Task: structure prediction
Amino acid sequence: MTKLYHFSLDPMSRRLRLALAEYGLGFELIEQKPWEPDPALYGLNAAGAVPVLVTDAGEPLSGIEAVSEYLEETREDRPSLIPGTPLQRAEIRRLTGWFDTKFYAEVSEPVLTEKAIRRFLPREAGGGSPDMNRVRSGLSRLRAHLQYVEALIDRRRWLAGDELSTADLAAAAHLSCLDYLGDVPWVEFAPVKGWYQRLKSRPSFRPLLADAIRGIPAPASYADLDF
Amino acid sequence: MTKLYHFSLDPMSRRLRLALAEYGLGFELIEQKPWEPDPALYGLNAAGAVPVLVTDAGEPLSGIEAVSEYLEETREDRPSLIPGTPLQRAEIRRLTGWFDTKFYAEVSEPVLTEKAIRRFLPREAGGGSPDMNRVRSGLSRLRAHLQYVEALIDRRRWLAGDELSTADLAAAAHLSCLDYLGDVPWVEFAPVKGWYQRLKSRPSFRPLLADAIRGIPAPASYADLDF
Result:
């Protein structure tokens, strides 16, 4: 069976969980906590990071784009998550990369590191109190990104066009991690909330809503479809 | 004609210049200096960053993976730069992402920002003397990456397998920027030097070797095929 080495609050891991479910593939999840590094992970990915997908045949695949494109290329008769012409696919990949690179660096990484990961790290590995300046800066930039998502969703059914794509999965994966911490100001961005609600209601999303990190309870709204 | 908005010492821009040339596409280069931000760039890419490719039809494409995959999908009868089975393509994309994400964050970004870009930035935008701690840390991590490249090239003709791929272009694009600053310890990594020499000798590489940044002369070895 396909295995996915992941961490619950890692946006790239979440994106692959969503993609695997949308493609209808069964998989086994193996949790890797950033504060308890597993030496075996380096044998699967020289970068030592999640997500790592291990195929049925035992081949370890890493690199978020590499795995995402592999799943698309081997999906057989399942609907594409990078649908359309080369131009439309470029738009999907542009937005997917936007979230996994720019949004991650400006928002997800600082907020998740400071508010969640740092509290579990030993002091010698950088553990301790969160740097609230990094949190504030991340949450302030989150608003600019939500404005951008709102502008996209204002003129399109899904983020990159008429069809659901990896761009929606990437954006929702990042936002769902922040939502676990109660940090998404949905009330100010009603159209974005409507788009997220549609995603949140899909069967592929359900397992993410059941995630629970010991010591960090999610707010009640996190798993509520009518948040 | 296809246009590429680029910056000479931006590794992702260099990767696309190499790819365009390998695919045999003619293109016009439009230089964008990070220290003289061009407001028009935001009209082409909401992230305000290079590289941006503008197609013959005037469509602006951005996001390094988006553009790279677009060129591959529209290459017609030119040789593939992501050749092979889905598994082989996953390995190419894993290594391509390795350089554009991990190598960039750990090596290219700190070294290029501190040694080149910062000297041209106005003081209020972060200009001034380089932070030598960031340079030293970047160059120390460069050695670990060169060891990894050496381990790959020890058992493969090209980085990701038997054929030239975007993984080679990405790696060479990053290394060539550092080489422009004289910062690659080639003498300690003879097999990596041999691989780079093969790339450097390709016609696609020649325009990069003619790059010149005002105020930062490249060492003589930079353009020398027998360095």
Observations:
- Chain B has a mean pLDDT of 96.
